[in-house]
Structures are given as C-alpha cells and as structure tokens.
Amino acid sequence: MPAHQPAEVPAEEANAAFRSLYAEHSPALLRLATTLTGGDHGRAEDLVQETMLRAWTHRGTVDIRRDSPRAWLFTVARNLAVDAHRARRARPQEAHLNEDLVLAADQRADASTDNAGIRAVIATLPAPQRQVLIEVYYRDRSEADTARVLGIPPGTVKSRAFYGLRLLRRALADHDAAA
Fold this sequence. Notes:
CATH architecture of the largest domain: Orthogonal Bundle
Largest sheet: none
Radius of gyration: 25 Å
Number of strands: 0
Mean pLDDT: 78
Number of helices: 7
Number of domains: 2
Oligomer: single chain
Order of helices and strands: HHHHHHH
Distance between the termini: 75 Å
CATH class of the largest domain: Mainly Alpha
C-alpha cells in the first residue's frame, strides 16, 4: 500500500501554517536541543534553526494540519545533534597557539615557514595553481568562493589546490635543502 502523499498546499496557507508550527513547537524544541547539546544554548539555538529550516523546506508537502509534526521535528533535531556530535569527534583536536613562546636569540625560524621564502617559492608555481593557493590560503576564501572569483568549477579549485600544494611542498623542501 503506497504511503500517504499529502496534496500540495497553497504557498500562503503553507507559510501561515509554518509560522504557527514555529510558535507552537519551538519552545519545546529548544528545551530538547539544549539537553542534546549538553546545555550549550548557542548550539541549541543553531540546532532549532536548522530543524526549522528543514521544516520550512518541507512546508508545502507536510500536512501539519492533519499530522502531528512534533515527533518529526524532534526526530530531525535528534538526528542533527547526533550528526554534529559525530562531526566534532571526527575532527582532530584543535591546538591553541601559545603567544608567549618566542625563539631563543640564537635560533632561526624554519626556512619553510619564512614568509619571504614561501612567497619566492609560490612565485615559481604555475599560474593556475598559484592563483588558487593565493585565493584559498592568503585571502581565506572557501572552495566555492574561490571558484566563483576565478570563474572555474569547484572541482577544478580542489584539483589545482591539491597539485599546487604538492608542488609547493616539493619546492619548499628543495628551498630548505639549499638554505
């Protein structure tokens, strides 16, 4: 037997129903999200926002007048919290830079981290890889922003960054050996 497919709801009616849905369920959803995030109110608010965004994208097809949406909202929030928790566990622990550390007077910074050395080596890279590395690492652009700025597909940005970094590592190793 096929699953119930709700009829398409008119946009104005769907928007009004969504506003009502948010007003009715967001307080309980925020309480759940706060529990799921271990009391982190900021992350809980983000979780509610993402859950409501999912509800908004389904507003035209989910018949909230007939079906109770609370269970669906809670399930979405729980799944998003689990996904966020797994993503945080999968990322390596962030290291904090100790600003108080200084080099001893007779120590020299590693040549591979020397700014002038890096610039000189980057200048030797082929133009496509150099452009991508400058946009991503010096201008702190995302893959998508770099693709938009350079007018190339995101996959090309990823490829050029990969090969550019590989060339950069080799060139820096050669530069270090010569220094």
